[in-house]
Amino acid sequence: MIEGEDLLLCPTCGTQFDTPASNPPSGYCRICDDPRQYIPASGQAWTSLKAEAGKHETKWKQDEQNERIWSVWAEPKLGIGQRALLLQTSHGNILWDCIAYLDQPLIEFINSLGGLTAIVISHPHFYTTHVSWASTFNCPVYVHSLDKQWLCRTPLPSIKRVLLQKQYEKIVEGVTAIQVGGHFEGSMVLHWDNHLFIADTFVNVPSGFYRKDRPKGTTSFSFMWSIPNMIPLPPDTIHNMWKAVKPYEFTATHGLFTGWDIRDENVKKSVLESMKIQVINQGFAEHTLLDEE
């Protein structure tokens, strides 16, 4: 039995609530009823992990170039459909972000790798079933305090949920959570061993994956307040995001979905170039971000 399997869960975003699924509210999911997200045209629906059991299959895949990185996801998706990334560090396994669906095969697989030392979640859209995950793997969960108002589950007495306070927080040796803001005030990326795990804090775009002989002005990332509703972030916010990651070197980024990976010694430069392209095309030809190198 998985903790919380009888609790209310929004199938659109995957967020789990303290409310029993047998007693759904008449209102909306508070995560979806926000200008960054959406209520689907069909209206609000509710489900639970128990109701979804057997309707999805968890998948995992080892990274082709770094065997210490695993992508984890569910098919068909439950919620937004993001992947989680499991990092096999020398100081324990770190799960970056959560997927809503959790089943016994995935539990057994993760335990076969040694379980989890910590879960770190980029932003509220991926809080999903994190209390169930933390209970299952008996590990702490790290989220940023600036987004604490979006937490929809009360932690169990046995669960340690850590509200990060600073812009830079060490999770374990060599693994740093970086609060960059933007999509949410507390939105984070994760840095480990020249890899930057970006969720949708930096959004991969199609033109960013093919890296050879691209014309000037080709962007690799976008920077959005709302991804589904396509509302971009303002230049000052984008500049602050750059300042947050500028001290860190990285040659690979790992994004929202399986396969959204870029490996390029110039990928950090591509982040800055993409920021400049967005700011210029928003009509700010003299913004201070454009002076960054």
Automatic annotation (TrEMBL):
<feature type="domain" description="Metallo-beta-lactamase">
    <location>
        <begin position="81"/>
        <end position="254"/>
    </location>
</feature>
<protein>
    <recommendedName>
        <fullName>Metallo-beta-lactamase domain-containing protein</fullName>
    </recommendedName>
</protein>
<dbReference type="InterPro" id="IPR036866">
    <property type="entry name" value="RibonucZ/Hydroxyglut_hydro"/>
</dbReference>
<dbReference type="InterPro" id="IPR001279">
    <property type="entry name" value="Metallo-B-lactamas"/>
</dbReference>
